[in-house]
Amino acid sequence: MNILVFVKATIDRNAPLDPDETFPGDRDDKSDVMTNNYDKNAIEAALRIIEEKGEGKVTAVCLGSDMADKVVKEAIAMGCHEAIRIENSKAEVTHFYSVAKILAAAAKKVGEFDLLLFGMQSYDYGTATMAPMVSEFLDLPLACWVEKIAFNDGKVIVDKVIEGGIRKVEVKMPAVLSIASSGDFEEPRYTSVRRIMKASKTAVPVWEIADLGIEEKKPSVEFDDIEEPPARTEKCVIFDDGDASELVGELLGALKEKGLNIGAYK
Amino acid sequence: MGEIMIDITLTLLQDWIWDARREAYWPSSIELYGKQIGFLVYLCAAIAVIVLLIGLYRNMRVWFRGKYDQEEQNFTSFIFGLIKRGFKNFFSRSFPKRLYYGIGSGILKRKTMQKSSFIVHTMIMVGFLGSAIATLTLTIHEYVFHYKLLVGPLYLLLNVGADISGVLLLCGVVMAFTRRFLREKPYYERAGVEDLVLLLLLLWISLSGFFIEATRILYGLNHLPLDIHEILYTNIDFEMTSFIGFPLALILGFFITNDNMIFTIHAFFYLSHLMCILILAIILTFSKFFHVLAGVGNIILTDIDKTKGQVKFHPDGISKIEDFTFYQLLEASACMKCHFCHNYCPAQDSGEPLSPLKVIQDVKNWGKQQYGLTQSNKDVNMLGEQSGLTEDVLWACVTCYACTNACPHLIGHVDMIVGMRASLIEEGNVPSTFTTMLESVYQYGNVWNQPKRDRTNWLKEGKLPKIKKSDSKLLWLPGDTLAYDPRNQKVARATYEIFSKSELDYGTFGDSEKNDGNEMRRLGEEALFQMLAEDNIKMYQKRDVKRIVTSSPHAFNTIKNEYPQYGGEFDVVHITTLLLEMIEDGRIKFNSDLNYEVTYHDPCYLGRYNDEYESPRKIIEKLPGVTFREMPNHGQFSYCCGGGGGNMFRETPEWVETRISEKRVLEAKDTLTLPIQDDHKPLKKILVTACPFCTSMLTDALKTQQLEEEFEVMDLVELVNEAMGTSPPSDESSS
Description:
The structure holds 2 protein chains of 2 kinds. In chain A, the strands form 2 sheets. Chain A has a 9-stranded mixed β-sheet, sandwiched between helices. A two-stranded antiparallel sheet of chain A has the order 2-3. By secondary structure, chain A is of the alpha/beta class. In chain A, 27% of the residues lie in helices and 25% in strands. Chain A is globular. Chain A has 2 domains: 2-212, Rossmann fold (3-Layer(aba) Sandwich), CATH 3.40.50; 232-266, no CATH class. The longest helix of chain A is centred in the first third of the chain and has 17 residues, at 37-53. Chain B is mainly α. Chain B folds into 4 domains: 2-65 and 94-286, Fumarate Reductase Cytochrome B subunit, CATH 1.20.950; 305-424, Alpha-helical ferredoxin (Fumarate Reductase Iron-sulfur Protein, Chain B, domain 2, Orthogonal Bundle), CATH 1.10.1060; 432-582, no CATH class; 589-729, Rossmann fold (3-Layer(aba) Sandwich), CATH 3.40.50. Chain B has 30 helices and 10 strands. In chain B, helix 24 (553-561) links the parallel strand 5 (547-550) and strand 6 (572-574). Chain B starts with a helix and ends with a helix. At the A-B interface, helix 5 of A face helix 18, helix 19 and helix 23 of B.
């Protein structure tokens, strides 16, 4: 069984934010980049499948600049057998649609696979569209937000989260799955620093976007400009110093002053 | 007249003393009952010796599966190494220490032992060894010296010594029986067949010994005058020195008249005595009695100078028997289930599945299971249900060191547990809260999953002095918890205020400070620890720090005991030591009367690991208006707060009813609410500690136990700051 897991280098949750940034994974400081934490659930799912089957290979695929090397190597440290980085230096490609095209092309180039796994969404943009788009481009069956995976010759039976419950779906392989951050794969395994050190010594092949044979060169969507919203003029007042009943009175008084209808209060 | 009397008495006494001889008239039972019995006895003895050797081989087979001193060392060179090590240890300066440990745990009362258990053990040990020596001397007397050794005073000495030993053994065994099976003792609930058999054997050995002696004397008494080695004795009064055997002989004399009866009774006791000893030899290596051999071996071979604050394990971790070192497997064999570790373990006390005793026994049993007499199952994973060493057991350890501290045989429980954790870490089998914490340390250098730039946010006003390059200064390391945990940020501010008020010249790293790594190592994340240690050492050396003061005892421990291995020798103190120094040389002056009643909780990493019990207590003593009360568990027997070894970040499992911290808080409550004799009424009652983890854990426990009305939890630093008053004295004088 060959599994491809797509991982994304996102901005670190503790890194300072920059509104001018177009591609969040593209930073100068490595410590500002982290593996999209939802992708770790996908890696965990892939590794568990392989461990259960006792054979097969997990390959991590990542689109990003050399900053994303850290992410790819973390995937290897976690237990992925191979990894591929698709060079996206200077953030050439930024829009989801183009990214999905590239990932689909990369999957095609890899050729032999039974499952394509995605995290349920990305930590930064959180659009959760990558799995559906890739499945569309490759014309493969899709199941999103998968909590549980079982196999039945040539088919994969998954539990997917829907509002208010779980839906059991049988999907023909090869298939595209996005893994939920709940259920069986809720807790991705810990990657020890020793493993990270070992993985950092492995060489990861880098593919160029140009070699993937994508027709559209230009990104389908471009950011024109990013504007800051107008500054607020209202000031925020916090009533927290004093007795609760008095404070409520003060608050209601202030609201009334602003012309708010507060009913029977005098 | 008087002088003559004394002379006569002395002469008589002298004759009596110098003529005393062991009666050799006694035909040995073996000879009496013919060659067949003799043959059988020797056969049994041979079988016993063979079984003993097989048992020894079985145990040793497991030991030699362990790691040798160096990797790829072959068996013979390791054996030579062992012998060399044994000799070296025996003749080195550590010998008195070893002797102290050996004798200290066996005969003298070690602090961890309960009084009655120490008396019982001393009696059995001295009694058993004394009897064994007496019997051996007799054998030498008969077979080597041909009845010429035990003559005169030497013989009398033997008589007295043998009987004293016998009495000690008998009384000790009887007391042990009552302790194990009659008195209600919760931790002896596990006393089972093994204890019963061993004690019955010892009981019979001591009893039958007396009867053998008595029947021999009785025969002599009945056949006076007696020819002993061609000297005619009209009386054998010197036998009175057998102060148990002689009266017993007289009593037996009432019931037994003819020689045949004496022979029969003697034979019965003699043979059963012998058989009991042979049975003891047979079960020696298979029971807890093996500690008499393995324990001695362990005390001779163990690395006695290993600092308590270091935890030693191979970074690969321990997941199978072959991953332990030779010495660890020897240690496991030396365990005699005395339950001291079990009784002192706070995790066990709070209802966790961890018992240090069981961990050691599990290791031992797993080794024997995998390596029997003939079969050997190599490289079988031992962590899990199959051996009883489950993840729940291993993660429950708070590394408080109470077990190793209590162990009479120097068994390193913590090292083994941490080693096994390391293999869980390597596999990625880690509770998710630990994962978050460890990843946070790797990524941000702190355990609280917070950005680096927020590290000094606790400081609301004022400016934290930064240490600059080659700025030979005192370095203050507040640590992660003081920097990010809201409760402990108060402690950080208090420390800052004390330092400002006393105009201390110091510096900090500000935002660039990093976690010290103590907890990482205790969780088994060795690589992360090494990374942190190397980074920190580089940073300290670059700034050429003169002295380091840490707010956390955990950081203090690792910098003091573990950084030197990575080339970082620093003069490091815990904040309490520094404060005491400052109080003593007058840099800190107290201005306000506190009128508090306090008790002190010893942090494990300050107390048990680094023997710093006095400084905090001295500071409390010097605080004006503070009444100090000691909790029942204090000093080296202090309870834990449950936050050590990374367990601060572990979710408490559902089977724990009262958490460790809650138990401690309840104990503090009992101490602090004791009735006070005089009418003095304190303003506040406070549980003082000196560790951020303790402060945090105990504050939480106070809330869950709804004791917030009763007393507070405070760090010692906060108390000192309060006692100093708000306005610094130096400022007043300058203005």
